[in-house]
């Protein structure tokens, strides 16, 4: 993970995003129900990666939504966002699309990958957002806000919404806290980027803890690949000296397998690996 300071996103916009998303979770229940998850769909208020009734849930409420491309937006959700949040999110997600494009261009340049390959693998792309609300818990040492995992994305851009910290990354077997710099984004490499770069960029396992007395809010923007294509190592990054480390699968197969599993470490990325002789 790295922290982005000179990211080019207007700081006044960031402050508006923070203020409005804090209010989102204060909506009356009758208003929240208009934005609730439907069966079989993770968009809206609710939970994610729930695969069994007896599963132990994270100490976290979520709001998920696909935001780009526009033609794939859920018509039940975005239009029902309260104003001015709806207009602010329109501007913010557009700015994050520009930022993520610039980041991927720098990555391609840094590793000598062909630009056409990245464009083909990403396709029309996907941008989804997730607002995480972690209520205080007096048994905070016995629960987790978010189970240890790596993101199944190209990259994730995280914005801390208040001054309560809880993000931790696994380093050398230990959990290390991450404290965001003022007005900075936290940039995280996802599993798909590790696959495409054939292991050059490594996704980071992370988790979220909760505070015993204060609520915590964070806002993740996930940048992924479009449907219809395949996920696999870029051909220009595969050679006799460095053979393909991961299998090539259709995008639909990749996401179907991911959402059918409980969130747990880097287990799905491990499943995608090719056993080397």
UniProtKB/TrEMBL annotation:
Gene3D superfamilies: B-lactam Antibiotic, Isopenicillin N Synthase, Chain. The keyword Oxidoreductase applies. The keyword Oxidoreductase applies. SUPFAM superfamilies: Clavaminate synthase-like (SSF51197). Residues 125-225 form the Fe2OG dioxygenase domain. GO terms for molecular function: metal ion binding; oxidoreductase activity. It comes from the Eukaryota. Keywords: Iron, Metal-binding, Oxidoreductase. It holds the Pfam family 2OG-FeII_Oxy. Belongs to the iron/ascorbate-dependent oxidoreductase family. This is Fe2OG dioxygenase domain-containing protein.
């Amino acid at each position: 993970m790295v922290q982005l300071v000179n990211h080019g996103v207007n700081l006044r916009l960031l402050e508006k995003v923070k203020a409005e998303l804090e209010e989102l979770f204060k909506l009356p229940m009758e208003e929240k129900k208009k934005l609730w998850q439907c069966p079989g769909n993770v968009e809206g208020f609710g939970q994610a990666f729930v695969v069994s009734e007896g599963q132990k849930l994270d100490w976290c409420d979520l709001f998920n939504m696909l935001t780009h491309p526009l033609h794939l937006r859920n018509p039940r959700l975005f239009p029902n966002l309260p104003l001015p949040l709806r207009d602010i999110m329109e501007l913010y997600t557009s700015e994050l699309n520009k930022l993520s494009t610039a980041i991927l261009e720098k990555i391609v340049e840094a590793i000598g990958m062909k630009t056409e390959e990245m464009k083909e693998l990403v396709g029309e792309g996907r941008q989804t957002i997730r607002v995480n609300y972690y209520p205080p818990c007096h048994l905070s040492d016995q629960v987790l806000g978010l189970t240890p995992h790596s993101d199944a994305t190209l990259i994730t851009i995280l914005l801390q919404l208040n001054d309560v910290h809880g993000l931790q990354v696994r380093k050398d077997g230990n959990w290390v806290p991450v404290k965001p710099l003022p007005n900075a984004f936290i940039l995280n490499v996802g599993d798909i980027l590790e696959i495409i770069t054939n292991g050059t960029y490594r996704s980071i396992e992370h988790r979220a803890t909760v505070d015993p007395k204060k609520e915590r809010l964070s806002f993740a923007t996930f940048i992924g690949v479009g449907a219809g294509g395949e996920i696999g190592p870029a051909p220009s990054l595969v050679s006799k000296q460095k053979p393909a480390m991961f299998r090539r699968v259709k995008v639909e197969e990749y996401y179907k397998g991911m959402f059918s599993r409980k969130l747990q470490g880097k287990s799905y990325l491990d499943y995608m690996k090719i056993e080397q002789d």
